[in-house]
Amino acid sequence: MMSRQAPWNLPLFRAPLDRWQERDVLLKDGVLALALTLAALVPTLSGIGAQIGDLPVRPADALGLGLVLAHTLPLAVRRRWPAACLAVVAGAFAVHQALGFATTFASVGLYLALYSAGAHQVRLRPGLAAVAGAGYAALAVVLHHLGSPQSVPDFLAFSLVLAAFWLLGVTVRRRRTEEARRRRLVAEAATTAERARIARELHDVVTHHVTAMVVQADAAQFLLSSAPERAAEGLVAVSDTGRRALTELRYLLDVLEATGESAAADPAHADRAPTLGRVGDLVERARRSGQPVEFSQQGERRPQSVDVELAAYRVVQETLTNALKHAAGEPTRVVLRYGDEHLGIEVATDGPLAAAVARKPGPAGGRGLAGLRARVRMLDGELEAGPRPEGGFEVRATIPAKTLQE
After folding, report:
1. 4: exposed, middle or buried (C-beta count within 10 Å: 0-12, 13-18, 19+)?
2. Which pLDDT tens digit goes with each residue over 31-73?
3. Beta-carbon contacts of residue 404 (< 8 Å; ≥ 6 apart)
4. Least buried of 66, 344, 366, 402, by fewest C-beta within 10 Å?
5. Average pLDDT value for the chain
6. CA 7 to CA 250: how far, in whole Å?
7. Counting Cβ atoms within 10 Å, is residue 341 exposed (0-12), middle (13-18) or buried (19+)?
8. DSSP bridge partners of 347
9. C-alpha to C-alpha distance for 256 and 376, rounded to whole angstroms
10. Distance between CA atoms of 250 and 170, rounded to whole angstroms?
11. Measured between alpha carbons, how far is 392 from 351 in angstroms, rounded to an integer?
């Protein structure tokens, strides 16, 4: 069953309406003021409007026409200068009633001016409300002395109608302010989350590669005196690691300039993206740095979504970085398990890594293992890290699979 759309949501009307919404408020309010002025000149609408005095009707004349225009034309600035608009329209209404002119449709402008003052007045709103209330009380006294048949309850009832339009504007203003505040808070939260994400990415990229380069450079320095012919291999490893760091940093900058999904899916950036297919490169670089790493994969690997691939890659990267820093030369095992519903990552290291990680302070922004745990939980996964009963340290992560549809 097809749902019925409102006429203004149809493409035929949506585009003109959007263009109209983009126009300046003076133009839009000017059109409203002109439309109300023309409507006030239509005889069939002459009996519709605001009326409180009920004094003997005075014949229309040039003054009456001027007062009619004073009811409508100031509405052209009702949002730009709402207080001035209300002052002119209310003054015209008061004189119109006191002189006994016939009801005119232009007096509807009083309601619009009250609504606009409640919705758009920024400064001195309580003072404006007090002045408007005092002005109406003075009008009621003047009309009574001029012989108006209206009683006190009638004047009070009409004041409630006027107050209702004012309060309607106040309610709209309050909701508009709350919506703006909500959007600001959402934007601030998104900015904070994005900053934390950038910090985690930079931490993972820089820390891993710099750690590997330091280890490789130290090894090359040692080989210069003991085995000069092998020192060149260490320098080549340092160079390769630096190039890979630059590649990942360029990829990260591309992601920040676009969106994560679109940037990573771009074929031009595919060779830069840290994915599960490049975990082998991490293992190889760790081996070049002197870390004995055993790498195995179980199950059939299928491409996952960008966030899953990147999170799994960072888990392996961070754990190998900790192994290079705190358990250099100790056997390390990396296992990737591919399933239909979950992706499993296990990285285990022998040696004193557990104590080193336990002493390591948690950095601000949730980086390191804390950042990985938060990243995995955002994907509805779990990450556990801690010492193994037989010694050493182990990181286990399970992430729901999000296989890309080919």
Report:
1. exposed
2. 999 999 998 888 888 778 888 888 888 888 899 899 999 999 9
3. 302, 303, 304, 305
4. 66
5. 80
6. 48
7. exposed
8. 334, 395
9. 20
10. 51
11. 5
Q: What is the DSSP letter of 367?
A: -
Nearest Cα to Cα of residue 395 among 371, 369, 376, 374:
369
- In angstroms, what CA-CA distances link 89 with 72, 79, 289? 7, 14, 82
CA gap 362, 26 in Å, rounded = 56
Distance CA 315, CA 347 (A): 9
Residue 363 to residue 389: CA distance in whole angstroms: 27
Distance in angstroms (rounded) separating the CA atoms of residues 194 and 230? 44
| Cα separation, 52 vs 82, whole angstroms | 23
The pair of structure tokens assigned to 49 is: 């409007």
* Cβ atoms within 10 Å of 6's Cβ, excluding its own: 7
| Residue pair 26/80 in contact by the 8 Å Cβ criterion | yes
Burial class (CB in 10 A: 0-12, 13-18, 19+), 357: buried
Could you give the CA distance from residue 213 to residue 49 in angstroms, rounded to a whole number?
83
Buried b or exposed e, range 76-85, using 16+ CB within 10 angstroms: bbbbebbbeb
Distance CA 274, CA 204 (A): 11
Sequence-separated (6 or more) residues with CB below 8 Å from residue 19:
none
**Residues making up the chain, counted from first to last:** 406
Residues 6+ apart with CB under 8 A from 399: 308, 311, 312, 342, 343, 344, 345, 376, 379, 380, 381
User: Nearest Cα to 365, choosing from 254, 212, 252, 204?
Assistant: 204
Enter the tokens of residue 130: 């007090």
Is 115 or 356 the better-scoring residue by pLDDT? 115
* Residue pLDDT, tens place only, 68-97: 999 999 999 999 999 999 999 999 999 999
How far apart are alpha carbons 263 and 200 in whole angstroms? 18
259 vs 14, more confident: 14
CB-side neighbour CA atoms (13 Å) of 185: 6
